[in-house]
Amino acid sequence: MKVPSFIHNNDTHMQGEPHKREEEALPREETTEEVPPPEKSQSAADDAIPANDGIPEADDTAATEEPAAAEELTAPPHSISFTAVAVAVVLFVVAAVGGMYLWGTISEEGRMAPPSRAPLVVGGITPLTGDAASFGIPIQQAALLAAKEINAQGGIGGRKLVLYWEDGKCEGENARRAAEKLFEEHPDMVALIAGSCSSEFLAAAPLAQARGVLSFSSSATSPNISTLGRLVFRTAPSDALAGKVAAEYAFFTMGARRAAIITEDKDYPQGLREVFRRRWGELGGTVVTDAVFAPGTTDFADIARRVKESGADVVYLLPQSPTPGVLAVKALKEEKVPAQLLTAEVLLIRDAIAEQGKILDGVVGIEVFFDKDNPRAQQLIANYEAEYGLEPTYPGFMAGMYDLMYLLKESYEATDGTPEAMAEYLYRLRGWRGAVGKLSFDRNGDPSLVYSIRKIENGAAVTIDLVEPR
């Protein structure tokens, strides 16, 4: 199976994907039949792990037959037989025991203890269609892979981890509706993967915070996420750091002084744009062109002409997904713009480079450093290749999601399992070793990680520098 090509726009749901309603019935504990692995195909959903590895199973329980009509009682009026009393007592005891088994017991403090064998439910929102699915689907796959491994190890606190997914389409309104749907259908969710895009996360995470539910992301980077609440965590550093790193690299290393900024009108690119502009001005640089293009733009000829006429010596290009970024680079090169090209992680996706390496040659990008020699990273790479048949395409973002699933397990098992206790556990972590690197969260639930400066050369992204934000 391969991740859908980044250059095409798929506006239909994938067949069999885990967020489809017919697959969302909770698994029955007595099921022992082994589910065969999915076949490899171009559909991301066909790559979903087996139902008992993090995806809800379909309920195929046969309909029960209607009971035969009860025989007419012959006891005298106002009398009750000993047998009837015994049956009633037995039924009461069975109902009470069964209720405690299914729903938990009342603790000494008067709180309902969690059911011992009910699945632990996590909701997920990510782009599953459209251009942003080029990173949304790999991030989903990383979560599913971790869930499969966790369930093979006995689950979380002895409970099976089950993930339910909705397509956020990298749009705030879609993500808000998706979150409301997940909370309505699964009110027992312990956590919400609130989006891969900043626009998704900014719309969905506040709903989780209001309900007292943890929310996670491995790729939403908007600076505005830092103020959403105490139950919000991400493994992707804020653009307040990334934009600053980009400005300082362009000024000090590239030697640029006149910047042209080209950004898509979405939360993620605009967050980087604002930080870059502010830091660029502090350094003494000048912004000579600041072009914002609408989502869906395909013609960048006019923007390229304006950049050339401005005399810019560096272009900071920030699309939401690879497709418009490749088209913009192509237009700049066709216009023979002499400026150096600087971008963020979106254009460093391995599929984009493999398919459009000639156009992207010479582009410099900044992304979270992924150390493939890290043992946890090696585990992710090996298991992902075994499961999906290809290398991770967005290794930093995927590693972060993989780690978040394991942090969910660790924080749940180390505490009483309440969101507040789990959050406090995460805030206290220092140097936790994960696939994404050494993780610690600040008071806003943000990480501090090393950045990799990578240059696209001969169809590959080569690391040319490492930067640790100050």
Defining traits:
470 residues, alpha/beta, Rossmann fold, seven-stranded mixed β-sheet, five-stranded parallel β-sheet, 14 strands, globular, disordered N terminus
Description:
The protein has twelve helices and 14 strands. The protein folds into two domains: 21-58 and 116-237 and 394-439, Response regulator (Rossmann fold, 3-Layer(aba) Sandwich); 240-371 and 451-467, Rossmann fold, CATH 3.40.50. It has helices spanning 82-103, 133-152, 172-185, 198-210, 239-253, 267-283, 301-310, 322-334, 350-360, 375-388, 395-413, 419-428, and strands at residues 120-126, 161-167, 191-193, 214-217, 232-234, 258-264, 286-293, 314-318, 340-343, 364-368, 432-434, 437-439, 451-457, 460-467.
Task: State the gist of this model.
Helix content is 38%, strand content 16%. The protein is α/β, with parallel strands linked by helices and 470 residues long.
Which structural class should the secondary elements be placed in? Answer: alpha/beta
Sequence stretches where pLDDT stays below 50 over 5 or more residues: 1-52, 58-115
Gap between N and C termini: 41 Å
Alpha-carbon Rg, integer: 26 Å
What does the largest sheet look like? 7 strands, mixed
Mean pLDDT: 82
How is the CATH topology of the largest domain named?
Answer: Rossmann fold
Write the layout of secondary structure elements.
Elements: H1 82-103, E1 120-126, H2 133-152, E2 161-167, H3 172-185, E3 191-193, H4 198-210, E4 214-217, E5 232-234, H5 239-253, E6 258-264, H6 267-283, E7 286-293, H7 301-310, E8 314-318, H8 322-334, E9 340-343, H9 350-360, E10 364-368, H10 375-388, H11 395-413, H12 419-428, E11 432-434, E12 437-439, E13 451-457, E14 460-467
Parallel strand pairs: 1-2, 1-3, 3-4, 4-5, 6-7, 6-8, 8-9, 9-10
Antiparallel strand pairs: 10-13, 11-12, 13-14
